[in-house]
Amino acid sequence: MTATETRGDAAAPPPAQAHRHQQAERLSSLRTPLVVSVVVGLLALFPLIKNPIFYFWDDSAAAFLPYWHEIGKQLLSGDWPVLRPDMWMGGNLAGEAQISLWNPVSLLNYALVATLPDLALAATVVKVEFLIVLALGVYFLAREYGAKEFAAAIVAISLPVSGYTLYVDASAWVAGLIGFAYLTHFWWSLRRFSRGLLNPIVPFAFGALAMTTGNPYGALGVIIVLLVIGVERLLIKDIKRFWQIVMLGGSVGMTGLVAFLPLLTGAAVTWRKPAGISNSGFMVPGIGDLATMSSPTYQPRVEMFDPTFTTFPMTYLAWFILPLAPWLSWRAMRAGLRTRFGLFLFGTIYLLMAIAPSDLWLFRWPARLTQYVFLPVLVLVAIALSVGLRTSQWRRRALGSAAIIFVGTYQAWANTPQNIEWHAPAFVLVSAGTAAAVWVVMKNRAKLLPPVLVAGTALVLLLQVLVMPQNGNFTPWYFPTNVAELKERFADRYTGNTLQIAEIGPAIGRHGYSPDGAWRDLLFGNMYHVAGVKAQNSYTGIGFTSFADELDMEYHGGTQPEAYQRLWQKEQANGGKTLADLMRLETVVVLNDYVPDFNPAKPPAGWSVQQTTHIVNVLHRNGKIEWPDGRLSYAAPGVRVSEDRSTGFTGETVKYSGGGKVTFAMLAWPGWKATVDGKPVEVKQGPAGLVQLELPQAANGTVVLSYFPPGWGLGIPLLGVGLLLGAGFSVLYAVRKRRDRASA
């Protein structure tokens, strides 16, 4: 052994010591993400101080949580639901892409929701989970672009509690939050892979999760991230990695089609048809609004739901970004421009889209993209913070900060001068926070900068949730949230197929939002299904045009008074049966003083008013429904039915003799197939869009109805190919990497 070799052996640490050192490094690298998770989890609870149902709001209350609860129940019972005929317009679970039937994390969360006793609690648990996921995505993205741990942590904590993310996506439109959270992880992991530092299985997994949420903005984000990372590789002439990104992107795209094809291929019967380009000005922010990202109480005059301007800080991002701008190193942001070009390209694309026309094909309301615009801004700020604040010419910089804070406060006051008691403390908080941040740096105590910025974020958030405790532009609903109490209140009262004739405006206007008000006898959205009622009123994002037109039914399940009269009109083409008969109704709930000429003393023939309260009259069918084991509601005189039996939600078997028309009490969604003794029969739309068949003559025929979502015949094989490609590429990459290390 040579002297050199001896010295080398002596310098090398023992294997056990090296292993312990590696473990310590790994634990150290996890410490900051853990702190970020804990802080965001705590900050996410601040809105509950004044509004305990902050996360059970608008569509989350009317649609998402009830959907999740019902799907979770089926999953726990061993079924995987794709269609719920008993939910009518809201029952096309595959077509409602954002229900995420192919996302494994979503399905696990649905099972969790079904086990929790309270829907508001369930909403809080799942949404805080994804706010933390989002924060971690921002943290790792900032680190990937070169920010130090402390700077990445500061911006990661800021985005989940920013205005749009917290008050819109987290509070109400949760599918947007989930898709955006996955996107941030897809971005950092794809870039890390592009630099040869990560196996492609990681970006593939995050990309597939983003696509299978069914949120179109998440899917669009995946495409744009692939674009910007591809451009970054081309700028440094890394052609090999560029084509690997293209291949990986193709495999990710294949996994998402299964979520979107049922929506696109079934659009003909729904409201949700791809549109052109138009601009109503609805939810279109201006550049000036986005420039107020550091004004905590600025409420933009962006047209929204009633009232027609925002009641929350929609364009707020973080209190310290603009006030500290004079102290940041802009040179640090420009450094390595080619390798960081994706940040600027991503931000430019989304800025143009955020101020674009209100409707672009399936994409509408550009304000939804606010957080996408802000994401690269935060990463650039983290890069600049990593260098530290510049304190030279501090008087000029201080004047610049003061001017920025004053202008931001003035803009907030000018928009809502009546809220001066909000703007004044916001001005004080931002000014004091900025001064404290600069002071600790000038006093060579830069280690205190992260606590100062995070503490400022917490104090500003506290102010916001106290003075703006809710998104007042969206419907609050205030539904009862205890699942057991809902079932106790409604399940035994409204039996069988139930239709409610009521609209939210008159119901709330007369009786108010509360369990002792309108919700004593009424529910909207999908809440009836949580309560154990087979209501034909449900929430839908896609609708069913024929059914909605016939019953004047809104997306949230509200109906116009005319729907009541239409129930009793006889359908001559269906043997003179009424629409109520064809829908197999057994209960009709009528809001008092809502339907003209409704007389509880003179119910329709075959019905009686069995319940009357100061809110509703409840009609029940007197006789029994024919064919109680299935959904058949009409058979022509030439059809003699010996048996009708439903097989789950997506199957029906009818044994008959003779021939003629039959109608079923379920909507004719694209995807229903019918056979008679193995031969196909056309599925048609009957009255109100009900399934209708023309049965051929048979001495002893068997009708089999089955449902398979349209588009899945292509989507499922493509999903399989995408998974195989992604997994295969990842294995091949790992093998080659190991060989390269061995040869080196």
TrEMBL record:
State the UniProt keywords alphabetically.
Membrane, Transmembrane, Transmembrane helix
What residues form the membrane-spanning segments? Answer: 30-49, 119-142, 149-167, 173-190, 197-213, 219-236, 243-264, 309-329, 341-363, 369-389, 398-416, 422-441, 448-467, 712-735
Give the start-end ranges of region Disordered: 1-23
Name the domain of life.
Answer: Bacteria
- Signal peptide span per the entry? none
Q: Does the keyword Nucleotide-binding apply?
A: no
Record bears the keyword Repeat: no
List the protein's name: YfhO family protein
Which organism is this entry from?
Allokutzneria multivorans
